[in-house]
Amino acid sequence: MDMATAPATHCSFGIPIHSHAASSSSFPNRLDCSSSSHFPLHLELSTISIFPRSSSPLKGSMDRVCARPDIDDFYWEKISTPILDTIENPICLKNLSLKELKQLAGELRLELSSIMSSTQIPLSASIAAVELTIAMHHVFHAPVDKILWDVGEQTYAHKILTGRRSLMYTMRQKNGISGFTSRFESEYDAFGAGHGCNSISAGLGMAVARDMKGRRERIVTVISNLTTMAGQVYEAMSNAGYLDSNLVVVLNDSRHSLLPKVDEGPKTSINALSSTLSKLQSSKPFRRFREAAKGVTKRIGRGMHEWAAKVDEYARGLIGPLGSTLFDELGLYYIGPVDGNNIEDLVCVLQEVASLDSMGPVLVHVITDDNQGVENNKRSDITDGQEDDSIKSNFLHYDVRQRTYGDCFVETLVSEAEKDKDIVVVNTGTMMEPSLELFREKFPDRFFDVGMAEQHAVTFASGLSCGGLKPFCVIPSSFLQRAYDQVVHDVDQQKIPVRFVITSAGLVGSDGPLQCGAFDITFMSCLPNMIVMAPSDEIELVHMVATAIHVNDRPICFRYPRGALVGRDQTICDGVPIEIGEGRVLVEGKDVALLGYGSMVQNCLKAHTLLAKLGIEVTVADARFCKPLDIKLLRQLCKHHSFLITVEEGSIGGFGSHVAQFIALDGLLDGSIKWRPIVLPDSYIEHASPNEQLQQAGLTGHHIAAATLSLLGRTREALQFMCS
Questions:
Q1: Which of 55, 95, 382, 429 is the most buried (most CB within 10 A)?
Q2: Where exactly does CATH 3.40.50.920 map onto the chain?
Q3: Side-chain-facing half-sphere of 628: CA atoms under 13 Å
């Protein structure tokens, strides 16, 4: 069907979407749902489904999600959002004028502010990217065009515009929507946002697959300035420049930096001249002239092409911001900077970028402001200030009384660092734990925050150790996965004493499987020279910090979970180094021995209390070390008990596997002892509260007690514990 004569199509709320001929674009600027020649798949506007019917994480959710949230289900602020109320999916943005898009941006920002005030989920990154999100969905044609995001925190406006508005208040809750993009959640989420820096690599793969399959969809990847600290971003850019596939990379630059000294320097400015130059750089006539000039210089030969390329790079360096030629060197055509909070500029530039069939990889540098619209979106405009003060007071009170393992670790390390000037900290990850601020304030010259550069952090810490310092490399469990090669070759193989502090170990509640620290016990304990330990409470954590400081001949690591401390009213004294590989017995019993590792020791003690009420006395032991194991303790437990149950908040192949390996080789399994492991299930556990996740994983005190009763043949009582 000719696009110029195609009939108008209507969104489900009645706005007509007209089609027109596009001169050289692969896709029309206005979507024609009646034509199948331009798209490889059909969109049924009245049945946009967020979750696949067969695997929806929202039990009982409707296949069709309304644009307006259900007032009966959620506390809903009375905010006037007339345009947003009509948006059921991105197709409905196609016929909106620039004036209407600007109004939609204001309404969407109000919506996000209301969600933030009700859920206490930080949404500032998404609020800053509202105009960018609207512009991308206005210009490109998702889900046919693929839009990939680097980090989940920027995607909440995207979630609202793609049919999930009514579910935003369930975000990060059990059976609710994810705080990140998810291929299982929506067809508009082309790829799962991981720990950052993956969108260009995945997008380039999709672009190459598109070219090989002969398709024509656009691939758009969004990265943030914080994720540009990761090496994978530049690896992907370099490969994109080499392959020269059509790919749009949007750098969403909020001008944040981990380094205060950098923030004090000059920032990229946005003004009328930069806006005009960005539009010129992205315009079809300019790029056609540039390509034609390249062709002429190639035909002339005798070095003319190389000379012209240098002139082009120099000229573009003059009109671009500092560092913009880096992207050109990597093979990406740089456009920018563009005002990321100006709908008109964004739409203009993105339409030009989308209009050419052969453009190669392009990077659009967008500057966004986290404070955009804050004055108009304060909660005091929605609710009275007295309620706001009350909520603030409650949360401050909550923060004061909830001390975490991180607080305990940092306080201990500060105390030790005052006595030992060689102690330094290397921090890595998407953000710094608030507790680490104390160490940075006390010892600013001994604190190194490298951001999302985990590979560098590990080898950097190894170098610090070789130089005679005592580095503590603080890294979340799930981020340590990205630096495993460096852990093996740059630390363990060379027996360099780097002290790994593995945070967010085990289940992490609302962050779900993405940040879950399920695998560190397994992949750290298989290394020949690594000492692997885990504290059962804050007192043990203090002792393990002291232990790590005194180990100077090999690497050592310890893990601790998120959340509050055990809460025992004990004064934390100076740490005393633990003898390497020495566990301890906490409670003497008979028949059954519960051998816990790390935080699961506390749940073993809870199981002991439950079983004691039934007249069953079990032994509870704290392993402390996964490697080396306390061989003497294991032999003692196997000798005096009929059953041995190992409990850990980690995956298969961890602590329990090391115990099984030893007792099998030692011949203990040939006797009367029977061994059972309790570990995390061999599946990813979705976001929920920490207690709900433990319940689902079968790691609560009740589950451990039920496993014990089952071994003792008391099946009925075991079932009662499982159901309670």
A1: 429
A2: 584-723
A3: 11
In the block, residue with structure tokens 């400015």: 269
Contact 207, 242 (CB under 8 A): no
Residues 6+ apart with CB under 8 A from 613: none
Beta-bridge mates of residue 612: none
pLDDT at residue 49 in the model: 38
In the structure encoding, which two tokens stand for residue 278, read together? 């960005």
Residues 6+ apart with CB under 8 A from 37: 1
- Determine the topology of domain 405-559 in CATH: Rossmann fold (3.40.50)
Distance CA 184, CA 57 (A): 8
Question: Could you read off the pLDDT of 568-607 as tens digits, one per residue?
Answer: 555 567 899 999 999 999 999 998 999 999 999 999 999 9
Which SS3 state, helix, strand or coil, does residue 19 take?
A: coil
Euclidean distance between CA atoms 127 and 368, whole angstroms: 10
C-alpha dihedral (154, 195, 654, 465), degrees to nearest 10: -130
Question: Could you tell me which of 105, 534, 567, 571 has the C-alpha nearest to residue 347?
Answer: 105
Residue 585 burial (C-beta neighbours within 10 Å; 0-12, 13-18, 19+): middle
Q: DSSP string covering 356-408, please?
A: -S---EEEEEEE--TTTTGGG--GGGTS-HHHHHHHHHHHHHHHHH--BHHHH
Amino acid in the structure at residue 134: I
> Using CA atoms, how far apart are residues 333 and 237, in angstroms rounded to an integer?
11
Tokens of 687: 């976001």
**Which of residues 151 and 292 earns the better pLDDT score?**
151
* Residue range(s) occupied by CATH 3.40.50.970 in the chain: 84-256+273-368, 405-559
Could you name the CATH architecture of 584-723?
3-Layer(aba) Sandwich (3.40)
Give one DSSP letter per residue of 179-244, joined into a string: SS--TTT-TT--S---SSS-HHHHHHHHHHHHHHHT----EEEEEETTGGGSHHHHHHHHHHHHH-
Say which CATH superfamily domain 84-256+273-368 falls into.
Thiamin diphosphate (ThDP)-binding fold, Pyr/PP domains (3.40.50.970)
- What pLDDT is recorded for position 35? 36
**Count of all residues that appear for the chain in the document:** 724
* Residue 494 structure tokens: 């060379």
Task: Give the tens place of pLDDT for each residue, 597-655.
Answer: 999 999 999 999 999 999 999 999 999 999 999 999 999 999 999 999 999 999 999 99
Structure tokens that stand for 363 in this block? 């990077």
The residue type of 322 is L
- 225 closest CA partner among 314, 337, 113, 114: 337
| pTM exceeds 0.90, yes or no | no
Q: What is the pLDDT of residues 50-98, one digit of tens each?
A: 343 334 444 333 343 445 555 444 444 457 899 999 999 999 999 999 9
Is 421 exposed, middle or buried (CB count within 10 Å of its CB: 0-12, 13-18, 19+)? Answer: exposed
Q: Which residue do the tokens 């030790």 mark?
A: 416
